[in-house]
Design brief:
Blueprint lengths: L12 E6 L5 E8 L8 H6 L1 H9 L1 H12 L4 H10 L7 H11 L1
Antiparallel strand pairs: 1-2
The protein binds zinc ion (ZN).
């Protein structure tokens, strides 16, 4: 996997039109070629994706419980991965603990 950061100045751009407060419609691709591998693993590693995952009430409840029970961060991340939550970093967990516990 070549790319582990989102700060890569990817040139991909598209025109979107807001259909409502929550829906966008793609009207035109300006540049379609990424300058990086663009797959599920890349998407999951984006900070915004990771932060959204940890805000999910179910995930948040589980993480709080595991941290309170003294589970090691590596174990928590492994359990989250096995539940299909995605790639939560060690730092994400530290931030979660700082903000929530
Ligand atoms: Zn891209």
């Amino acid at each position: 996997m070549g790319c582990r950061t989102w700060k890569i100045f990817c040139p991909v751009t598209a025109q979107l039109i807001a259909k409502s407060k929550t829906a966008l419609t793609l009207t035109k691709w300006e540049v379609t070629k990424h300058n990086h591998v663009c797959d599920e693993q890349f998407y999951e590693s984006l900070p915004s994706t990771r932060h959204r995952l940890l805000k999910d009430p179910e995930v948040s409840k589980d993480v709080t419980l595991m941290i309170s029970a003294g589970a090691k961060p590596g174990k928590i991340r492994s359990i989250l991965r096995s539940k299909g939550v995605g790639r939560i970093s060690q730092r994400d967990l530290a931030n979660f603990r700082y903000v929530n516990l």
